[in-house]
Structures are given as structure tokens and as C-alpha cells.
Amino acid sequence: MPIKKTNTKVDINQRRVINGADADVIQLYPMRHAFAWEAYNAGNANHWLPTEISMQKDIEQWKSTAILSDDERRAFKTVLGFFTTADSIAANNIVLAFYRHITSPECRMYLLRQAYEEAIHTHSYQYIVESLGLDGGEIFNMYREVDAIYNKDAFILSFNEGIFDPAFKTGNLKSDQKFLENIIVFSLIMEGIFFYSSFAVMFGFQRQNKIVGSAEQVQYIMRDESQHLNFGINLINTIKEEQPELWMPEFQKSVIDLVKQAVVLEYTFAREVFPKGIFGLNADSFKQYIEHIADRRLERVGLPAQFNVSNPFPWMSEAIDLNKEKNFFETRVTEYKTGGALEW
Ligand code: FE
Q1: Which one of 40, 127, 143, 267 is the catalytic residue?
Q2: Model-level pTM?
């Protein structure tokens, strides 16, 4: 759209997460959505790369026949099979849906950072597959072959339909609700629920001192993902404030229904990963854990808890607090090139 030449300044009160004025997407100021700028800065401060983490111990343990049982190997590969394509699905939606329809420049700044982080996560899985000498064609194709992964991804991808249509536009009640539903599915469900049994499996390994390099990679991914989730929740709650008419009772009910469907898909996946259960993690405790975090996600967007169960994996909260517990700079194996060290 051609810009109009004018001395009139942008009115901060006209700025919106969606349906803001067309020309406003270029100007970062006047900034209205401070949460997005904070998220952008937090993302930069947490920058990391997969190749900075040593995979030596994992390589030795994977080769050894004495460390990992067949069930543990199968669980690790299935979790990796989910992860390898999950961040690409998230990245596609950021670039092809969020970025196109979100009109707040500061939110778009964070989306650029977030999209790069999703690429780093996919790089991390590639690095694990390559380090351990796994069959990339097998692991990366699991989302088409393994029912429990396929069912989660098919559910998520069905919410791209319509939104990826070049003719899709926000600006009326129906399309705004459809886009808000897309944000809810990708942020609250994909990033807020569908990653979490896989995170728990990886930290289960870490607690046994097994495949610790891969687990550390996933710990950095989880730190990024909890930031993505926070940002998504801020988007949802800000849209609710800016366009309260969208958050009608039927819509709230449909969100609760989607979360309930997702909970079933997620604990079905966990059952597939651990049919017999290992290191104290079994299908029942996963079901309870997923229900527990689903309630927390619902509460963050102002909806009532549905399951009201306690957290069977309290150690997961410690794993999430990586930035407070651990000094990344003491463990990283390479350093960034600073301006002075660059060679031309
Ligand atoms: Fe993400």
C-alpha cells in the first residue's frame, strides 16, 4: 500500500495488535505494546547456538551398549521425532500468519527474533541427529509415520487452513476470531502444551545423568519456548482488551474444548513414548502433568481450570528456571566473535 505524505503523527491510541492502521507497521514509535519490546530484549540476552554445547558424552553413551536400554533409546528417538518438525511448523505460522496479520511494529520486532529462535531449535535437533549418527530421514519423517506425532501435528496444521489463504484478512468478527484462535492454538497449545511431555522426557534423562548434552540443548530450547509462550499469552490478553467483543462466551467455550482435545492428544503421545514407563515416569503421571499445565495455560488467559490436579513433576519447574540457576557462559564451549575479533 503506498504511503500518504503527511505531517500528522501516529496516535498511540490507534495502535492495535491486530487491525491497526496500515502505515503504522513501519514505525516502531510511538510504542504501545511494551511487553513485546521486553520480550525482544530478553530473547537477545538469552542468545545461544547448539554447536556451543558439547555432545561428547552423548556420543559415548549412545555408542555404549551398557548405558541406555532399548526402551530409553526408543523414547529418546520418538521425542526427537516430534521435536525435529515441531519448530518448523511453529516457524511457518509465525512468518506466514502472525507476521502478516499482526499490526504492532514492536510485536513484529519480537516475531523476527522468535522466527530465528525456531530456526536455532531445528538446528539443535539436526546437530543432535548428526552427532549421534542417527538416520535423519527416519527421525525427520516421524511426524508422517508415528500416529501419536502425526495426530498432534495434523491437529495443529488444520488451524493453518484458511489463515494461509492469501485472501484472508482480519477486520470482521469472524476473521478476527479465526486469527485469535490461530494464536491460541500455536502459542497456548503448540508451544504451551505439546512440547511439555517431550521436555519432561528429556529432563528425565538429565536427572539420570544420561544424554546430558542433548538435554542441555533442550533446556535452552525450553527457556526460549517459555518466552514464546509468555509473548503469545500477552498477544491474546491484549487482543482481548483491544477488541473485547471477540471474547464472547461461545468463543471461550471453544477455547476450553480445544485445550481439552489437546490434552488427550498429548497424553496419548506420552503413552506411546513410554508404553511401559521408565525412571519413575509413567503414562498416569504424564496424564496428570499435562492436565496440570493445561490448567495453568487456561488461567493465564482468564479461563477456569478444568482438571484441578497437582503437579506430579515438581522438578520441571526447576528445569524451567535455567536462567536463574545456571551461568551459560561457564558451560559454553565456543565464544561469539565480537566486533574486534572479526576478520575480513
Ligand atoms: Fe516457539
Answers
A1: 127
A2: 0.92
